[in-house]
Each structure stands twice: as C-alpha cells, then as structure tokens.
Amino acid sequence: MTTISPERIAQIEARRDELQALMATGDLPSDRFVAVSKEYAELEPVARAAGEVRRLRAELLVLAGMEADEDPEIRAMAREEIDTIRATLPDAERALALSLLPRDAADERAAMLEIRPGTGGDEAALFVGDLLRMYQRFAETQGWRVELISASNSEAGGYKEVVASVTGSGVFARLKFEAGVHRVQRVPATETQGRIHTSAATVAVLPEAEEVDVKIDDKDLRIDVYRSSGPGGQSVNTTDSAVRIVHIPTGMTVIQQDEKSQHKNKAKALKVLRTRLYEAERERLHQERAGARKSMVGSGDRSERIRTYNYPQGRVTDHRINLTLHRLPEILEGEMGDLIGALIAEDEAERLATIEG
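-> structure tokens emitted (357 positions)
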C-alpha cells in the first residue's frame, strides 16, 4: 500500500481547520454554511485518521533519537516503544488510506432488491424464495426494514419475480455486492433418482431514488389501469386497481397489482420506476467515466455466476474472491456478515492499490 505523504496529511488537517474556522465566524449565508458543514463532516474523520498517523510517525522520530542515549535502560525502552509503534503504524496508515477512498454517493441509500429465476425452471423459482428469505433474515440482523413491492408467485412455489425495498443505514453499501447470478446445486424434492440439479437466479440491487433525484413529468407517462388477476387468469380483485406505467422517453414499463388500492399500486410503481431511471442515469455516467461494462446480472445462465450454493456439500462459494464457507444453513438463515465483509475488504484492497501518495 502506498504511504500517505506528510504533505498530504498537512493539507487534510489544514483544510479541516479552515472549515472549522469558517463555521465559527457565524457570518456565512445559510446555503454556504450547509455546504461548509457537509464538507467538514466528511473531512473530519479523515483529518482525525491523518492526525493519528502524524502522531505515530513523530513519536518514531523521537524514539529513534533515544536509541542513541548513553543510558542502556532508556535505549531498551526506546526499542520496545519503537517495536510497538511499528506494529501499530501500518493499521493507522491503512485506516487513513481507506478514509481517502472516493465514496459511492449511493452507499448510504436504501436499496431496491430484484430477484428473478434464471435457468432451472421450477427449481429456479423456488431458489428465488430461498434468496429472498436469506436477505430478509440478514436485514433483521442489521436492523433494516424489508417491504415487498411486488411478488409474482410461481405455480410450483417460489416466485417468478420478487421486488423488495430495503431501508436502513448503509443498506446499498452492504448489499450492492449481491448483484449477479446466484447458482444452486441440490436434489429437488421431485427428483426420484437423487440426482443433483443446477439452477440459477439473478439478483439486481439498485440504490433507491428520492423524488428530488429524478424528475418525472406527467406528460412522459402513460398510465393504464385494469383488473388484477392471479395465476391462470383468476380474478383476485373486483376493481380496476392494477396499474401499468410506461415511461415514454425510455420505454421503461412497471406493472404493480399487489395492493387492492389503485392509489397504492400507482405509488409503488412510481417508486420502482424512479429507482430504475436513477440507476440507468448512474450507469450512463459510470460508462462515460470508465467505459462500458457488463450488465449487472447477465442472462441468468448457469455459467455466469458470482456465487454457488451447494446443498450436498453444505458450502457456499463466492467465485469473485475464491472464498468457500462450509456454513450453508447458517448463511441461508441470514448469517452473511463474513461473506459480505470479505467482499467489502476485497473491494477496498483493490481500490487502495490505486491510491497515489
């Protein structure tokens, strides 16, 4: 890891002090005060980490001089302190480097979680239900709230599609690495020969948009209402409460029929549409900066997987970081901390490698 230079540390601390002085004057216009306060809140933890690195480095210089002291006890004490600081300094420098990494502006947002079957037929639909339950249990451990936006049940159980809103602190930051194709290997309940089947499900994780993020003009929307229907065309509602919204400029379509109220279905459909439009704009900007990249979830083919859940062996393997955990039952019950933590650590390590001192 590249060492952060003393000059860079001095710049960080000087800017922190400048912002602090500006806020203390009491002369700033309200909009300027808000901007300065926001920058200070973002920079203060960085300056604190920088101050710790500066302090440890300064102590090393002092102790290096004490190593030449005539008193053998002072020399021994200095060497002991030097060993302690040298063991501590790399962690402090890493903490500073991490605080300097550019942050995804969406990390603190809520997330829209979309799960759909890939290859595998009925087994894939059942696996969608397993993944949904896993994320619901994980959300409980984090103190998050999960609200089902829409769920299309499959005839054999499971789901043809499920969309959920996950709200709480730092939701997108911890769930965004779940996006991709998840593969399951197990013996279906209907398999009489005991053969292991492989199927897949796609997971998309989108940062939720607020109304201020995406302006949707009414003239750009075509809204149709109709009677909700269940599996096989059976009516589940006697009123025209289902809503289909088409965003005319993009052709993006959202259908919502889970609620009995047309008003609630429209509100949920607009929430989904706003989030998808927001993500499309994020993706466009990302491609402008970094060039085109693969679609988030691919085609749902078995070979395009990020993670495999192997029931016979009781293991979960994340192929992006070559991590295998023999804790399948616990992970499916929402104990995903180690898995997600490893993915975050790998992402941080890759980004740290790009830092220039």
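The longest strand covers residues 197-207.
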